[in-house]
Amino acid sequence: STHTQSSKPPPHTPPSHTQPPVHTLLLHTHNPPHTLHTLHTHNPPHPLHTLHTHNPPHPPPHTPPSHTQPPVTELYCSGCEVCVCEVCALGEHADHPTGPLLAALGTHRDGLQERLTAAQNRLPQISEALVSLREILQQLTNQRALIEEDIHISFEELHKTLDVRKSVLLMELEVTYGLKQKVLQAQLDTLLHGQGGIVDTCTQTEKALSGEARAASLQAERGLGERLRDLASQGLPFQAEENDQLDLLMETEGLRKSIHKLGTIITTSAVASQSEASGVGLEQCIVGLPACVTIMTRDKAGGPCRSGNAILSAEVCTPDGSVADGEILDYKNGTYDFVYTVNKEGEFSLALRLYDQHIKGSPFRLRVTRSPDPEGAKRRGKSPGSKKKGSRRTGSALGTPRRKENPIEDDLIFRIGTKGRNKGEFTNLQGVSASSNGRILIADSNNQCVQIFSNEGEFNSRFGVRGRSPGQLQRPTGVAVHPNGDIIIADYDNKWVSIFSSEGKYKAKLGSGRLMGPKGVSVDQNGHVIVVDNKACTVFIFQPTGKLVSKFGSRGNGDKQFAGPHFAAVNNNNEIIVTDFHNHSVKVFTPEGELLLKFGSNGEGNGQFNAPTGVAVDVNGNIIVADWGNSRIQVFDGSGSFLSYINTSADPLYGPQGLALTSDGHVVVADSGNHCFKVYRYLQ
Ligand SMILES: *[C@@H]1O[C@H](CO)[C@@H](O)[C@H](O)[C@H]1NC(C)=O
Ligand SMILES: *[C@@H]1O[C@H](CO)[C@@H](O)[C@H](O)[C@H]1NC(C)=O
Ligand SMILES: *[C@@H]1O[C@H](CO)[C@@H](O)[C@H](O)[C@H]1NC(C)=O
What we know:
This protein has 684 residues and is an alpha+beta fold. It is 23% helix and 30% strand. One 2-acetamido-2-deoxy-beta-D-glucopyranose (NAG) binds at residues 304, 331, 333-335. Belongs to the TRIM/RBCC family.
């Protein structure tokens, strides 16, 4: 394990049970409340042995005067557990085992010393527990503040959204009303105008009719007559040209119900010390075959926890680092499965942690073998992941003759890094990215940082602080560089994606509350962030602002499903290429999430995979895939046809993860099992 958690010293055994019985000078068995020092309080000037003078059972003959001279010897009766003088030793205690007081005192002191040491030995353990508890308390408090802020922000955003919708509706109402009102008003005006014309003309005509019929007015009356004729036949809009309907349809019931259930505070009462793991995968497994461990979470009293979402981590490792890859499946009922595959045989340590603490019995000893039985041994050649280093050539020999056309020979240019925590050292590095300005970025997952190098492999800088607060990293597994220079980091354990400036200054996080276990990240042609959520088996597409553009995928073996997606790359057509670790395939999707192409199957032959991880795509659309379990790198054309291997035979890979193309056209890969990254020639 590379975490700081070194195995704790064995629990301190309660001293009282293991210590030899202490012969305290139980001077005061008769006077229970008294303690040692009281010996001297009753008769201050009196020497030690006088203490027994106060013991009621002491015989009267034993009077102080007889003790005025110091006794020759001082004795201790271990039967009565009192000091006695010679007189008493021969008298009342004659049949009792007595011995020299000094020896008894010595034994007593030794016992006391032993108890002192035992008690003191508990102090470091207490200090350690205090540190750990304070840390947990601090983290809990931080978390509360963060979530409080998240709640405020989320609801402010909801309010804003509601306000916007309100304005839109009010505006729509205004516009609709206005249009209708205009039509009706115009009709009204027309009618009023018509009415006015008729009334006026009629009045004039009536006036004319009431007067004398005169030739002089004939002309005017003819005019009136014509107007009246026109008015009587004038077309007027008597039928309403609009209706009065303006209704509001507002289905708020569903929304209100949603709002009532909006948001959930997630936690469990699970504690590591009570939680247990079971399953054969706890002790043994076979190289290349998935193994399973079941974890039952329990609370402090040992009662089962019945809800999911606990923060669990699992790691199979040697002192040199991680040798397995797998997923934790949350059944949401307090039970979890850790399904993993190991890529080499040997004895390993399997660490299972709940909230960063080892669960009961963790770390476990795991024995990984090639085959469980002779039958299996026969099949071995075909069993996934069972290949030895360099047997890639065997695989190639079985493959198409095309391999001969592979112009590549021994392609390594250089390797950088060893296991460690310093600059240029790695502990289980995962994602790799290359920027257009000649940098290589490495997500150093167990060192909780990102390290930056030049294309030539010179260390440039690193950043990252371990933690669960925004701006901190818990398990950075994916890294990408945005065209604007920002560095995008998928944090598997923090369940979000962090964005840093090119100088490593924290800017924002995205996907928080949505993502379950983001492993790989990439950037598409629109500058959108593509996130591969390994746990949710979903690909998310975000704007850099954090707004979700779209998502696709779920757990399964269907067309739009994944069995364990790890990394993604985007080609020139903005198509998304995803490696599906447990389906041993590579899947290509449209930006809308329609499956265009799927290639690969489980095996060691050309174009086959044993758990693909890192993926990159070149300008011609060729796809480069890290084949984790087969410890090799394969190159395919855009239609998924196998083209070649990158020749890694001189210095074999060991569980390669992230992979990228550098700005100078080389392939850089995270050689996780070897805790280094390697740069290879590519199609040159
Ligand atoms: C939780 O769910 C899984 C899968 O459905 C089941 O196998 C397991 O027994 C359940 N565990 C408990 C404690 O109910
Ligand atoms: C890989 O390179 C080595 C030299 O290190 C060479 O011997 C071998 O033939 C090459 N393999 C392939 C498959 O090209
Ligand atoms: C991978 O998925 C396909 C369907 O796309 C399915 O038929 C196949 O069985 C899966 N392979 C494995 C190894 O799960």
